[in-house]
């Protein structure tokens, strides 16, 4: 039964925020600041160096279905702690690399570790430890990665300028190994029962019956399972437009500084959007779908009209950030709403394959299209994909409501 004092689930939230804010903040949100200095020293193009991120996404894609089963079968505490230790060790190694192929190998190993840390850590643990306010805490943990990016990008830029990229990789690795890994090993627990607790929000008189929800074996045979994979693919596909927006903004006559202002507005939208979408989903999954896709559509339309003034660009970037936020938050919570909590980790890990695959394909795909098409046509395509995502989300929730009556 629940003990007096704050529920241990709050400690789990702190651990998830450490994973997302520090590890993902350093590894994913700060990846771009290394592209130019590393490629220049190694004597390769920025594109050739940046290819290591394709290995990250590709190995995450290959690993995710296995990762979900491993988290169900073995200790999430030690899997996540071990994965964090691998990432920190790789960053120490990257500070000594002398050839681009070494980064490709590191990217592959990073992809395996990030399949646990980036895609599954906080959705699975929050689902285990909380019966109420699940959406809010999922949004909060996911938002930590954006906060980490805001903090570590300028810090990393300063370190690179002052001490060089090798020392910066070394410092990032030490931060992960010395600051995050010991705390995860000390504080993480797999399930509330490990602390003699029930999930937060579960009544004391609740029976020990398993959580409600669809069996994994049944879920993978339903059309809605594959519809949600398409939803995830489309949402992350739209989010990767963010990689090309700075070039678009400068191409229509704005300065680099104004482009950076819009980029900051996008990150603000992502951070606020993740927390807000979690809060909204706790009250209505349908409202969450409509907010993430609808505000994203409005944001892209404002970006297309942004030549009329920088204020439109900034507002458009902020609203586009909500669609970006929906990639992780809305997908995770929509899967829970449709399939329940019973086999959540296995179901979500398989649907997350579409996130990794979509990131790998669309990040490059938009780039090729941008070479031959006016970027406003690409933004129009983004609007169309968000409309389709909204339709799929509504369909999934309606199917779920019919099957649970």
Q: How many separate structural domains?
A: 2
- For CATH, the homologous superfamily of the largest domain is named as MFS general substrate transporter like domains
Give the N-terminus to C-terminus distance in angstroms: 31 Å
Q: Write down the CATH topology of the largest domain.
A: Growth Hormone, Chain: A
CATH class of the largest domain: Mainly Alpha
How many helices? 18
Uncertain spans, ≥5 residues at pLDDT below 50? none
Task: Give the second-level CATH assignment, the architecture of the largest domain.
Answer: Up-down Bundle
Measured by DSSP, the beta-strand proportion falls in under 5%
Class computed from helices, strands and strand pairing? mainly alpha
Which H/E pattern describes the elements?
HHHHHHHHHHHHHHHHHH
- The helix content is over 70%
- CA-based shape: globular
Evaluate the radius of gyration: 21 Å
Quantity of strands, as a count? 0
Mean pLDDT: 87
The biggest beta sheet is recorded as: none
